[in-house]
């Protein structure tokens, strides 16, 4: 039988173990009974939330589109260029992670971010004071990183790619999103703009961005997970994610081409340095706003804004003689008008006031029809007084004056049509002493395109959610039947006389365009003085023109108004070019009206010899754009059966192994989009109008995924104008 060894336990070891155990117990009791703080928080709070991280994911703001799906406002990736200056970032000198050659870096970045080399170099040489925790023992040092602003802030993906290609040590990017308006100074007031608020969301502050802010904003999401004390997600722990819901997309009624024409017209008016100006185009049958431009304008990206109120809906002004359209029609509808009856023009006494025709002396005894064509204040006054204050006001109210139209734009004004005394009735008949807005004028003019029925103007076609469901869809809305068909036809005939010059005193003959049946009415209104009465001086007027075409059955309404122009001669090219451009673009008259009356229907050229198709198109005066050096056509745009005017482009994609960049100078945006879709490259535009500069050199072989940056500018016809 073996003896069992006795194990002796060292008493000192036992004492040490017991002591450690008692220390642990004491520490636990102390922590449990005292208010311990970690990072400024009670331990209990810190323990409960230190391992839970919840990050908000910002919802994409909805995109705003034109009626033909061109992007007008969208969220895009945006980057800020930063430079790491701290040498300790670099562990291997062969692979530096901070800026080593500051001179070279500044020189390379300068042309890309549009900053002077010296400015960038100054940022790269930034020094800061570094002190110990007591604020003592300070010395000069370099910051860990600097932003290269302002040129390096908010850059696009394309610019980032250019910088990446330089492979500059120490240059990096902070990614974010920004609200981007690809056309710059284009439809500025209508679109408005959005800025980031304190919660990180974009918030609309003007235009559609403001009016539909709730719909555009969407709902933010979040990601929640368990993390360690350093903030890193703990492996194998669950992650809770609530996806962000993108905002709704807005589709406007704006036609991109017609909007470009209105912008060109606005720019023409701006040559006269007006206080403000409006150019608006509406579909006479549907009420869709096809184009609207206001001055002073601004670039929605840079926001150099002179006025935060849209002149189209917010400005109220005395309309002047365009109001005679409605005062004369009111007399006609009441059965009190006899156009062939004569009256003495020149002046008329109303109570203690003398009303004068615009030329101060009139034209002798003339008919009321001639009085309208000559814009006689005396004629309008006599008709209004005969009609009476109550009836005239009722007609004005029925036409929507004195109340908002309800268009989907913020800050719309109502205008004022209060008049009581005979002198005020007289003034109201020719558009003085009352105030209106541009959108009200379009609404009232709609009666001339719809046999006396007034229709509501609208600028938002539809609202679509992120799943493609249509939330709101607007369409033609009839408000009221104000005038009979006979009254409308009579007024359209008188407005034709204003332009065609059948009366020797017709005021709108400068707007006559051969081949275009434009009808219209001119307006010149004095501007009220804040001290009472009216301002003096040759420039203190609101000059305007209300027009429709074709005259027999109007499809388009235009309204142009400008305040305090230094010369009225710019109204002629503004209006005539606008009408010709729209008429040709919409093919309203079935021809171009510029000695190019032939309309050609395209054949199918697929699989045909390129040389044969090129000859055919040249012979019928179309412009072939041949893409690639193949011998067969594999795709054409437009397709067969499409009708084109002489000089239009036909794109022919050939069976080529490679495609080269053509010369696109002078091309429109739609033509450039067609090219890019055919050769699979992405286009980014700056401005509107026609190509003046572009980033891919002519003759460059195109590779899939390449990006093309294009600068667009308006193009004008030279027009000689008389005062």
Describe the structure.
It is a single chain. The chain is built from 19 helices and 35 strands. Strands 4, 5, 8, 9, 14, 22 and 23 form a seven-stranded mixed sheet that branches. A five-stranded antiparallel sheet has the order 16-15-27-26-25, with helices on both faces. It has a three-stranded antiparallel sheet with strand order 3-12-13, with no helix packed on it. A hairpin with a 5-residue loop joins β15 and β16. The N and C termini lie far apart (136 Å).
**Assembly category:** single chain
Structural class: alpha+beta
Helix content: 25-40%
**From the alpha-carbon coordinates, what is the Rg to the nearest angstrom?**
36 Å
Poorly predicted tracts of residues: 591-597, 716-723
Distance between the termini: 136 Å
Mean pLDDT: 88
Largest sheet: 7 strands, mixed
**Based on CA inertia axes, which overall geometry fits?**
globular
Percent of sequence in beta strands: 15-25%
Count of helices?
A: 19
Features:
19 helices, alpha+beta, 723 residues, five-stranded antiparallel beta sheet, seven-stranded mixed beta sheet
Brief account:
By secondary structure, this protein is of the alpha+beta class. The chain contains 19 helices and 35 strands.
């Amino acid at each position: 039988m073996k003896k069992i060894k006795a194990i002796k336990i060292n008493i000192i070891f036992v004492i040490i173990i017991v002591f450690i155990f008692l220390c642990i117990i004491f520490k636990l009791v102390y922590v449990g009974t005292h208010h311990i703080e970690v990072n400024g928080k009670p331990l209990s709070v810190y323990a409960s939330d230190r391992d839970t991280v919840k990050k908000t994911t910002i919802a994409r703001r909805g995109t705003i589109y034109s009626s033909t799906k061109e992007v007008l406002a969208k969220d895009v990736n945006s980057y800020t260029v930063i430079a790491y200056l701290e040498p300790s970032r670099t562990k291997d000198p062969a692979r530096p992670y901070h800026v080593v050659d500051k001179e070279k870096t500044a020189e390379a970045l300068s042309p890309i971010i549009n900053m002077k080399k010296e400015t960038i170099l100054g940022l790269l040489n930034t020094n800061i004071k570094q002190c110990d925790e007591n604020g003592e023992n300070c010395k000069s040092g370099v910051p860990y990183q600097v932003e290269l602003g302002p040129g390096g802030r908010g850059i696009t993906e394309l610019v980032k790619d250019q910088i990446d290609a330089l492979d500059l040590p120490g240059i990096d990017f902070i990614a974010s999103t920004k609200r981007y308006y690809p056309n710059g100074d284009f439809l500025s007031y209508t679109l408005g703009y959005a800025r980031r608020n304190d919660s990180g969301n974009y918030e609309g502050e003007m235009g559609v961005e403001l009016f539909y802010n709730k719909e555009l904003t969407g709902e933010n999401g979040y990601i929640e997970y368990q993390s360690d004390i350093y903030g890193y997600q703990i492996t194998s722990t669950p992650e809770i994610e609530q996806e962000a819901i993108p905002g709704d997309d807005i589709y406007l009624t704006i036609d991109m081409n017609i909007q470009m024409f209105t912008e060109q017209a606005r720019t023409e008016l701006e040559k006269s340095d007006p206080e403000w100006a409006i150019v608006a185009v509406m579909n006479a049958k549907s009420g869709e706003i096809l184009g609207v431009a206001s001055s002073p304008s601004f670039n929605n990206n840079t926001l150099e804004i002179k006025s935060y109120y849209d002149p189209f809906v917010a400005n109220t002004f005395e309309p002047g003689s365009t109001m005679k359209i409605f005062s004369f029609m009111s007399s006609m509808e009441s059965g009190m008008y006899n156009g062939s009856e004569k009256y003495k023009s020149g002046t008329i006494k109303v109570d203690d006031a003398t009303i004068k025709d615009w030329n101060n002396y009139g034209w002798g005894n003339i008919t009321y029809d001639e009085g309208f064509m000559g814009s006689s204040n005396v004629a309008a006054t006599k008709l209004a007084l005969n009609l009476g204050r109550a009836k005239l006001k009722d007609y004005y109210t029925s036409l929507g004056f004195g109340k908002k139209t309800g268009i989907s734009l913020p800050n719309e004004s109502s205008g004022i049509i209060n008049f009581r005394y005979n002198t005020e009735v007289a003034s109201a008949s020719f558009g003085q002493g009352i105030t209106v807005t541009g959108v009200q004028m379009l609404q009232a003019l709609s009666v001339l395109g719809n046999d006396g029925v007034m229709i509501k103007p609208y600028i938002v076609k539809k609202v679509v959610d992120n799943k493609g469901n249509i939330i709101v869809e607007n369409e033609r809305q009839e408000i009221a039947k104000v005038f009979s068909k006979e009254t409308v036809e009579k007024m359209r005939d008188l407005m034709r006389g204003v332009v065609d010059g059948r009366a020797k005193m017709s005021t709108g003959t400068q707007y006559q365009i051969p081949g275009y049946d434009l009808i219209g009415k001119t307006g010149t209104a004095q501007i009220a003085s804040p001290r009472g009465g009216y301002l003096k001086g040759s420039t203190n007027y609101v000059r305007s023109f209300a027009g429709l075409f074709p005259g027999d059955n109007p499809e388009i309404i235009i309204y142009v108004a400008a305040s305090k122009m230094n010369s009225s001669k710019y109204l002629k090219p503004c209006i005539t070019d606008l009408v010709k451009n729209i008429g040709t673009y919409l093919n309203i008259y079935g021809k171009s009206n510029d000695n190019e009356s032939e309309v050609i229907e395209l054949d199918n050229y697929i699989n045909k010899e390129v040389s044969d198709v090129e000859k055919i198109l040249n012979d019928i005066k179309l412009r072939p754009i041949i893409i690639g050096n193949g011998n067969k056509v594999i795709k054409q745009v437009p397709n067969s059966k499409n009708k084109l005017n002489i000089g239009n482009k036909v794109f022919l994609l050939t069976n080529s192994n490679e495609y080269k960049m053509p010369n696109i100078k002078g091309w429109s945006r739609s033509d450039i989009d067609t090219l890019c879709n055919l050769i699979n490259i992405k286009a980014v535009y700056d401005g509107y109008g026609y190509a003046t500069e572009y980033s891919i050199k002519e003759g460059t072989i195109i590779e899939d995924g390449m990006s093309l940056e294009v600068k667009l500018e308006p193009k004008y016809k030279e027009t000689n104008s008389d005062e």
